[in-house]
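Hey, I'm writing a tutorial for new members on how sequence and structure tokens pair up, and I'd like a real worked example in the thread rather than a made-up one. If someone can provide the structure for the chain below, I'll link this post from the tutorial.
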Amino acid sequence: MDAARQITIGLPDGRRLSAAEFGPAGVAFFFFHGLGGSRLSPGWMLPASLLRQAGVRLIAMDRPGFGLSSASKDLGFARYSDDAVALADQLGINRFGVLGVSMGAAFAYACAAAHPERVTSVVILSGMGPVDVHERLRVGSKADNAFWRLARRTPWLLKPLCGLTASMTLTAARGDSGKVRQRLQRSVTGDEKPPCAGSPNQCRSGRSSHIGVHCAH
């Protein structure tokens, strides 16, 4: 994972917002992570060499309740967009692009809609819109389908179950990062093959849920 500069600011309502900055002092883009992501996601998704080549300064935020950002029960797309602008003000960034990955796409669109005077462009990677209350997301992974059913019926079970799953994965891998990646890929795609270890051109997506599985280099 590429190194990042860690950032933490206080927000007007008392919450803490945590972020990480990647790349050179170039064109600013705010990164909105997906469902299972965090401020650290760009470190394994977008190599530092690529950001340098493109001249992009990437700022990724932890959504409320993710990573080191304070949780909030009263927070929607618009309020989170205001958080992004508050961070931009703290960093002295007047105008910026937004980049949304997977479920982060909705937050990127919302930020652009709420602050058109600040947002210069919108980039979406494997975007997915919100799932309404009466909708059911159908994905290729049995594990993912089980988690979605739990989220609808017994959401209080999700946190301890996710913690147990992560603990079992790390224990079984015995500190081997390659084994962790392999187990995570199997849990998402059902594919018994190990992750791609070749060049970016040799990487192929696995059988996907809504985002697919791609090797990051």
